[in-house]
Amino acid sequence: MSNTTEVIIIGGGVHGASLAFHLTQRGVKPIVLEKSFVASGATGRSSGLVRMHYDTELDSRLAWTSFNYFRNWEELVGGACGFTRTGFIQIVARGYADALRANVLMHQQIGIPSLIISAQDAHRLFPALLTDDFDIAAYEPESGYAAPSDTAMSLMNAARERGALLIQDCAVTGVQTAGGKVTGVKTTREDFSAPVVVNTAGAWAGRINQMAGLELPYDTWRHDILFVKRPPDIGSSHPAVIDFSREMYLRPEQGGLTLVGLEDGNPLGESPDGDTDHAKPGFVERAIERICARIPAMEKGGLHSAHSGYDGITPDQHPMLGTAELEGFYLDCGFSGMGFKIAPAVGLCMSELILDGKTTTVDISDFSPSRFAEGKLVKGKHSYNYVWR
Length: 389
Ligand SMILES: Cc1cc2nc3c(=O)[nH]c(=O)nc-3n(C[C@H](O)[C@H](O)[C@H](O)COP(=O)(O)OP(=O)(O)OC[C@H]3O[C@@H](n4cnc5c(N)ncnc54)[C@H](O)[C@@H]3O)c2cc1C
What we know:
This protein has 389 residues and is of the alpha+beta class. It has helices at residues 14-25, 42-45, 57-71, 73-76, 97-110, 119-125, 148-161, 205-211, 283-294, 343-356; strands at residues 7-10, 31-33, 49-50, 84-85, 88-91, 115-118, 136-140, 144-145, 165-167, 172-178, 181-187, 192-193, 196-199, 219-229, 240-243, 248-253, 257-262, 302-313, 320-323, 329-333. The protein has an 8-stranded mixed sheet, with helices on both faces. Strands 9-2-1-13-20-19 form a 6-stranded mixed sheet, with helices on both faces. A 3-stranded antiparallel sheet has the order 3-8-4. Strand 10 and strand 11 form a beta hairpin.
């Protein structure tokens, strides 16, 4: 095994795997260093929602480009990503109805199958859903969810088949530099050299940035989710839903389960090494109350399980994609709780940026890490003023 390579990728989550996949598509054989195992971080804990509805055009473009991969996985990547089409309903409070209309128009202009539906239509699509507090919703008939670990694993397997080297149980402990350029990394195993090092370390990426001597605003975000056993009257499946007015999202899961997550009560600033096998005290009660308020029939359901995960988060809750002040050091992190569905496109764009110096698939320059110092935070034109907290 040679310790010198063209590109080192730090982290074997869905973003490290996606970048490795796209680099190998261009003939570059990166080394992926993973401190634990593939998808052991946020990816393996992710709810896996795949939808295109955002209030920022760039996110929607990345999600739409990625959707083509999810829909044609076997042909484009190989293996399985577990994409399941359920349809997706986006609910917002009445005060955001105009923003919803404007955002759906923006999605349609990109080519995304999305439409405005009435509350009655939403009820027809999901009869158990209470629809008395909104008049319209957005609907994406093609959207659904995928299996995040399978997605990461098949990207990584495809990359390895094309020559990428994955080294697990190998934690990066230092970033080596010379003359303002990155030269390699130190690890718990041995040192590796490369002119390009990419930080895809998720919730741990802030630590890697510090190792590289970079001062960038970066925090951790914890998110609990639970699965409930659906009572039979709700049916064998249902659409995925994001419900901003009740700060909640849900989607069906195999085995008659429904996954529920909350938009609030997600602590920032904890150690990413915290316990993710259990939800925080109080979460289950809050989530059950919220789901029963939107779907009263869930009162006859039962708790199945709950778990948690950590992602990296930035001040505007959008990723950091691109170079920072250290030549050859790239950031591909800070996905702020929303990075799964855009991973195939982000890996493609990052491979273009690294190999060609610019992207051709989607212009990701608005997500440049320098935007924080420049005061150019990303916000949608018709924003829902949505914040994780
Ligand atoms: C509970 C939960 C639900 C979510 N639901 C959704 C959703 O429905 N839809 C959506 O789009 N997004 C969702 N997200 C967000 C999404 O899952 C993440 O944005 C995405 O998985 C991040 O992938 P990643 O590869 O950047 O990070 P990770 O998957 O965390 O991977 C980073 C990897 O880096 C490794 N690493 C860290 N430090 C080092 C080191 N020093 N050396 C070597 N390796 C290191 C870690 O072990 C880890 O495997 C959710 C997140 C959580 C936590």
